[in-house]
Design a protein that fits this description.
The structure holds 2 protein chains of 2 kinds. Chain A is about 30% helix and about 25% strand. Chain A contains 8 helices and 10 strands. In chain A, the strands form 2 sheets. In chain A, strands 6-7-8-3-9-10 form a 6-stranded mixed β-sheet. Chain A has a 4-stranded antiparallel β-sheet with strand order 2-1-4-5, covered by helices on one side. In chain A, a hairpin with a 2-residue loop joins β4 and β5. In chain A, α4 packs across α5, α5 runs parallel beside α6 and α6 packs parallel to α7. Chain B is built from 9 helices and no strands. Classes of the chains: A alpha/beta, B mainly alpha. Chains A and B meet through α2 and β6 of A and α5 of B.
Amino acid sequence: MIELQDVHKSFGPKRVLRGVTLSIPRGSSMVVIGGSGTGKSVLLKCILGLIRHDSGTITLDEEDVTKVERDAFLARFGMLFQGGALFDSLPVWQNVAFRLLRGSLKRPKAEAREIAIEKLRRVGLTADVADLFPAELSGGMQKRVGLARAIAAEPEIIFFDEPTAGLDPIMSGVINDLIREVVTEMGATAMTITHDMTSVRAIADNIAMLHDGVIQWTGPVADMDASGDPYLDQFIHGRAEGPIEAVR
Amino acid sequence: MTWIATLLASIGRTVLGALAAMGRLSIYAGETISHMIRPPIYLKEIGGALLSVGYFSLPVVGLTAFFTGGALALQIYSGGARFNAESVVPQIVAIGMVRELGPVLVGLMIAARVTSSIAAEIATMKVTEQLDALVTLSTHPMKYLTVPRVLAGLVMVPVLVGLGDIIGVFGGYIVGIHSLGFNPAAYLQNTVDFIEARDIVTSLAKGAAFGFIATLMGCYYGMNTSRGAAGVGKATKGAVEAAAVLILAANFLLTNIFFTI
């Protein structure tokens, strides 16, 4: 289980997280929603230790994430970045098998390639893309490769940062279905950041709404429409009027 | 009195900023050296960096050294003619290239070619979250990106300086025998007789220092870039400027040190 208790993070005078408290049960899919610039990605990066939070505690299975052994901790995670973050200088299969070609999870090259091709198939890509470079792929294909890389080492926890950003509705649906499938199939704990409500309904078991640096509402996705929370209502219905200022 | 306080505060801020920047750079250099001697070592990345910094820089370094050696021979010949010292061309070309121009020109060419490319590449990786991706894949960006490049600078730039020295002297030789009427055998003999082992050692030592500076600046500015395309451009410009200035400053310091030894 991932637990955040009163997490704060500021960048200079800008207070992005102002006391975030949130629990993500093992094996569940949590989707964090909120407007652009509300600190969703910062929250996710704080959990991973990519950004150091100023105060509060973040624990994974009751261990403080700032005090764990980093390699072992990170080996439990997979992450799909918003823009894919594929390594331009490496062919697709080496991107997917990156973790399997070096470090503690290192496998023989042929075996790593085989696993990479199998993961590419899992996300709906054929073996002939394996030797292409990321720049030769479309945005949707890059997202799939990013997803294949995130699941290549079969992590316990997978983070998805805006998985459908910049994709057309059909490709977004494909990516949402893939995420749901791989998370269910692997039994992984998932945390997704998005402001795409279609993704929310497709991926989430639970949702949390981040606004003004705190979790404004959290609960099962089934309760979302009848939450009675004015912030959440405004957000899910995309209304310009309400407690959330339209111009930030 | 207010304007004096404002002026002093402004000077203070600038000095503090410069000291802080030097501190950050020193820490980064220290971390780089510390990561160089600790596993894991990424041999494939080191191999790629050796090729990129060394082999692929050879054409530009060779051409620069050749033309500089040739121009130096012409300058010394015409300058020497003012006090009947035309015959010193082989010796001055040799000492000028090996002690000074070879290392400095190679260092500056590496700053232009390699520092800019390293800074732009790593800065782009940073703004497209590839550095974060490396971390989540349990790979330390400093070990994977900085160490191979800085090692390549330390190893390959002295090699390039050595080759640049030879090619520069050869440029002077070609001009000397074809345009200035020197006897080929006498030119070579004078060159070989005049150069000392100490000159070559100082030349290569300068090369190692300049290679370290050039590659370190590329990595440091790349990893500390701000957001977007403008950030990448700023990082690249800053890296090349810093590398060029530090190479020239280091050249002055090292020359001073070598003179006193």
